[in-house]
Amino acid sequence: MNARVFKTTPQFRRALRSLSPEQKRAAKAAFQIFKANPFDPRLGTHKIFRLSALMKRTVYAVVIQSDLRAVFFIAGDVVISFDIGKQDIYER
Fold first, then answer.
1. Measured at the alpha carbon of residue 25, what is the angle toward residues 18 and 16, in degrees to the nearest 5?
2. Best label site of 29, 39, 70, 76, fewest CB within 10 Å?
3. How confident is residue 90, by pLDDT bands cut at 50, 70 and 90?
4. What does pTM read for this prediction?
5. CA separation (Å) from 77 to 5, 7, 22, 74?
C-alpha cells in the first residue's frame, strides 16, 4: 500500500470531541488500524452511495462500534475523514 497522509476536517474534530469516553477509546483503536489500511476487513469499510453522489466523489464509512461510523474520502494520497457519529451522519 502507498504511503498516505491522513487529515481530519474541523467538523470531524468537533464531532469526535462530543463522543463519550468509551466511543473515543473505540475510535482511537480503530484509527490505529485505519492508519495502516483504511480498507482493513476489521473496519468493515463500505461505500456510501448517497453521499458519494451528493459529493461527486467516492465516500466510504468505517465501522467503529455497532452504531458508530467515521466517513472519509481519498484525494490522491490524502485520506480525509470528515465526520464521525451514528449512522445518521450519512444524512447530514
1. 25
2. 76
3. low
4. 0.89
5. 6, 11, 31, 7
